[in-house]
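For reproducibility, we list the full input for the guanine complex.
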Amino acid sequence: MTANIIDGKAIATAMRAEIAQNVRNMVEKGITPPGLAVILVGDDPASQIYVRNKKNDCIKVGFYTEEHLLPAVTSEEELKKLIIRLNQNPKIHGILLQLPLPAGLNEKAMLELIAPEKDVDCFHPLNVGNLFLGIPRFLPCTPAGVMEMLKYEKVNLQGKRAVVVGRSNIVGKPMALLLMNEHATVTICHSRTIDLPKITREADIVVVAIGKAKFLTEDMVSKGQIIIDVGQNRVGEKLVGDVDFDRVAQIVALITPVPGGVGPMTRAMLLKNTMQAERLARKG
Ligand code: GUN
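The corresponding predicted structure, in tokenized form, follows.
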């Protein structure tokens, strides 16, 4: 059997169409469209592509957008000034500081400068804390995108065994939290986990987010599973996920491809968070 593929690209396109319609409705009522500022420091080629895609997404749905491309030699003081200026700009509802920052810039300190109400990545400690407490202002884009895909596929998570491979602050930890909120029984695995294949084989849902190309192999999965691949690894010119897709897809029930799986959903959730930021700014 070959697994069904969860088409993240198509789900994200449908979400963008809905957002674009909402923006048109806002404009008809004389409301200023949501605005997103994207900051890129340095010239990392992968980050340049991500930032360009995010800007183009904004344009497609009718958002106001500003792109701030700063040289790698930018000082913390200069970046700080820009963030503060954007915090105060009423046309800007969301601020995205593309990571990683060049060496010498303190990521944590810079992210904490972003006003929590404009932190559409949900990286600010205040927003992370609210998420942890179950009162989120925003949901982190990648885990929220995964949840949206599972919802679209009508996956009932209640009582299911979900295994998250990876414990990053951006994906692994919040992913576990969101799955737990939907009443899944969650296990987080990482580099020190003993007998990972046994644990992943026993899961109903496996989310892999460790950044190692084709890490999850056929011996680590079993029939009927749902496999979510968060990996975005560049192998030569190709984008390759954390799952050995061709072999794993022969065994499991549902799987996300790379590209065209989680990636487009992350971007769609960024738009959704920017809509949410605008709504909160207007209505409180
Ligand atoms: N770098 C890789 N993924 C992301 C993301 O989701 N947000 C930001 N700000 N930087 C990233």
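Residues 96-99, 121, 141, 266 surround guanine (CB under 6 Å). The mean pLDDT is 97. Both points were considered when choosing residues for closer inspection.
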